[in-house]
Amino acid sequence: MPSRRHFLAGLAAVALPRLSWADAGNPAFLSAAREPSGAYALFGLDAEGQDLFRIPLPDRGHAATAHPTAPEAVAFARRPGRFALVIDCVAGRVKHRLDIPAGRHFYGHGAFLQGGEILATSENDIESGEGRIGIWSRAEGYARIAEFASGGIGPHEIRAWADDTLVVANGGIRTHPDRGREKLNLADMRPNLSYLSAAGEVLERIELPSDLHQNSIRHLALAPDGQVAFAMQWQGTPDAGVPLLGLHRPGGTVVLAEADLAEQMAMEGYAGSVAYAADGQYVGITSPRGGRLHLFHPDGRFAASHRRADVCGLAPGARGVVLTDGMGGVFRSGSAGLSRLALAERAWDNHLVAIPS
Amino acid sequence: MRAFLAATFCFAAAPAFAGIDEVIESHVLPGTEAFAEATTALASAATDDCTAQNLRDPYHTAFDSWLGISHLRLGPIEEEGRGLAISFWPDTRGLVGRTAAGLVADEDPVVESPEAFAEVSIAGRGLLALERLLFEDDLAGYSADSYSCALAQAIAGDLARMAGEIDREWQDSFAASLRSAGAGGNSFFLSEREAAQALYTALVTGLDFVADQRLGRPMGTFEAPKPLVAEARRSGRSLRNVGMSLEALRELAQTLADHPIPETEAAFAAALERAEQLDDPVFAGVASPSGRLRVEALRTLVSEIASAAAKEIAPELGVSVGFNSADGD
Questions:
Q1: Is B325 part of a structural domain of the chain?
Q2: For the stretch B252-270, what's the b/e string if a residue is b when 16 or more beta carbons lie within 10 angstroms of its beta carbon?
Q3: Residue span of the signal peptide, if any (chain A) (predicted)?
Q4: Which of A261, A326, A329 is closest, CB to CB, to B190?
């Protein structure tokens, strides 16, 4: 599509100085929050959880996706969202608005490919209910340039490896915007974990045993050594005590990680976020409903449970993991316990996003 | 909607919450002490005469006192899985019956050591495992020198141990954590508002548990009611548990609020009155459409308590239910 717009965008990219995350103060994390006034904003935090910047958001968001090098974040509207905003974290303003084509909506997560030139987003093809991955070109002002099947229904979080392989959590739950967030296919839902090439070919697809078909695979973390962790949300009765964390390597078999029965039941069938510690020594999942962080060893053995009401955001920290809660707390955790980094008068939203360093 | 959000989530300079102290002094500590005493009495009755006939009365007293604190899902009851170990319900997978029957069938010697018994699956310990031994026809006829007798003694002793630990930990440390919320070195509660939030969450979660689990489970769906999953139906306690739990939650609401809460009081009174009139002790009535409707009416009244508390209690404390727990994705 050699267009005038394309040409101008290319020219602009050459002419403008290239900003980096250092220009935004070197944030370690991004998170959206609700403020005391009821307004929403995106915050940049340093490694100690202290505020570096605050950018107003028009409404409650879901997750943000950080560009690998440029100080840009893509903030998604909550599903079934129709738009996403590219935010300039230096100027503190909206740079682009991604409008999804008719008949689609965003599911709230995205991932950058090709060193940050391409953004991939998880989407719903509303009429067929088929999951889609939307492809957007940053050089063309975040124009939508392609899309392909996600390999399942209800794709939620997606992550990309350095070789641009996409890891997709197809949650399996069909929704339709006309019916709000109602789940339309719980009886026969079949979530999967899919590995896709950057061109959309399915490289591998993992399904859980049939008795766990109602365990929606929704959130993902990638270990430094290539292991994939997926966090699940059980759609059956919350006290069933099913595993909520799966660990997988391409070509391998899934390890389902569980705590003891009482701790497992205390998670109430819900994991909201998943992250590895930066050194890969632990993988954690949070349950805001159960008010718990569960830490596991990468081989699936349970390591520790730490309690904190309404905890959800979780990201790799320099040591251990860093977590956020709905009461404004930011904590660091290793296997020994939680230590407080910061407390602010705001409610941190579902996800804490680490900025690549 | 905007005004409502602002009202329930305001961070304005928090007053010292007198309610926190009152909850501790007039609600929690009397409750944990009563539960410790009742389970100690149950354990010593089991030592004297372990037969089912002798243990049923102290069993009921212990269960009654558990309902006084079972909603306090913060602090000591959350430690070491105690809450579920004391009362493993709802039991979707039928683990209580299977575990209790397995222990009896195998005559598992684990009952000989309290330390070893504390490691038994939480489904095989606590009030609902003991209920099988004391009230299930094919198990309750055991004699004083039987394995079941030793199992009843082990469960009763284990309950008394956990109840004593809960009482001691509340008195020795957790009450102080709530009181010193926001002080340096308090790693549980980073502000007074967090302490108030934790107690308010216990109130709301407790009301939800009564509505959705104690009443909602046996109600099942209109097409498929499930009377047999009612809590503690073998000991005939299902409705009694609802009433006693509501009374305990009313006490929590009254002590937590610093000012009159007429709507919440009226909502509690209406639900308790309806529960008293229900005359359906184990919710067997849900099997018929008219009987199910009556239980559903009670459930509606319980839900209305939570709405009243959200209006009358939450704004004063500057709290709401969790931002993430109430609305995830």
A1: no
A2: bbbbbbbeebebbbebbeb
A3: 1-22
A4: A329
